[in-house]
Design goal:
Helix content: over 70%
Number of strands: 0
Shape: rod-shaped
Strand content: under 5%
């Protein structure tokens, strides 16, 4: 599912999570809390959404290039 957030903000948030979640999961106190909150699953969902966003952007670019070449 694609959220309403623009691509730049989404990528910034994903990058922050990519840095934070692994470190917090390795921590003896915060690791179980992060697992309980489903942060690892949320990070994976965000990775999937980012791939979907990239695919849509490529498709838009290809359609645009095709319309330019036809015109």
């Amino acid at each position: 599912m694609i959220t309403d957030e623009d691509d730049l903000r989404f990528k910034q948030r994903l990058d922050r999570m990519e840095r934070r979640v692994p470190r917090l999961m390795a921590h003896p106190h915060y690791g179980p809390l992060m697992a309980q909150e489903g942060r690892v699953e949320r990070l994976e969902e965000m990775r999937i959404e980012w791939r979907e966003r990239q695919e849509r952007a490529r498709a838009r670019k290809l359609r645009w290039e095709a319309s330019i070449s036809e015109g």
